Structure of N4-(Beta-N-acetylglucosaminyl)-L-asparaginase:
Amino acid sequence: MERRKFLKNSSLTAAGLVSATTLASCKTETKSEAAAIAAIEPIKPIVVCTWNFLNATNKAWEVLSAGGNALDAVEQGVMVEEADVTNETVGKGGRPDRDGNVTLDACIMDKDGNCGSVVYLQNIAHPVSVARKVMEETPHIILAGKGAEKFAYEQGFKKEDLFTESTRKQYEEWLKTSKYETTINIENHDTIGMLAIDANGDIAGACTTSGMAYKVGGRVGDSPIIGAGLFIDNEVGGATATGVGEEVIRTVGSFLIVELMRQGKSPQEACEEGVKRIMKKNKGRKDFQIGFLAINKNGETGGYCVHPGFTYREYSEKGHENREVISFYE
Ligand code: SD4
């Protein structure tokens, strides 16, 4: 969608929300006021995800449109990317750290605030499903490294080599220079954060990544950190992030965005404020990207990023599209 058209739509919806709230509190509605209230009936089911992950949103939509719940939809949706070896930033085929280990981070959160997470997980292709098991089968929220891997085997996950020929070759090339700088967002598919609302109006989210390529061994980003890479509040909405995780952690980005929506901001406005908070701490810095994506209880969505290029995919009965997001630096 054209940027101008998208912005126009966002502000129209935001205006619709305000007037509906005002109208709803007015006892003597006119016919047209009642029609306006009906017009903002929540959009559900709906799924959105960071970047242009067509197959992942198709899968989530398949679950939602068959009457499935939001939690299953986001898990099964992001699993598509975890299994795709051509996606070198998520799951099997993800790029390794500087020591040559492919280490995965993921989390999942449901409508009741239950959540599970795995960090620095090796040899398992579907970290999001291990995170869901942590949520459902243990009294804990985060399992790390060897402990998470052992738990995964106990839960029936099988050991897999997460390297592909391509990522091994790239790593060998990288070793020749061993530049400390990490590479990020070098193509338009990256960490997947997914948010869904099911037919009941319940919200869930998931986020999964191999993190920054050639990161220092042991590094964990924002993606598996509840409140940073993902946050869901079933009364308000949900948010997720992609980009340089360190910056998202420093502002507890996704939690911040959900709280801003609770205070009345639209998803678009909340994402903009989230990025601006980060930029305040990084005055003039241009060498990193962050993209935020949010959805509110009405199924309105919004996104904002540091540099142009971030998009998000949205699928509801209204249609299926890849939305270009406006940015801090044009
Ligand atoms: C991380 N946020 O590990 C992830 C990486 C990412 O776009 O999202 N890249 O910091």
Notes: Residues 1-29 have pLDDT under 50 and may be disordered. The radius of gyration is 20 Å. The first strand starts at residue 46 and ends at 50. The chain has ten helices and twelve strands.
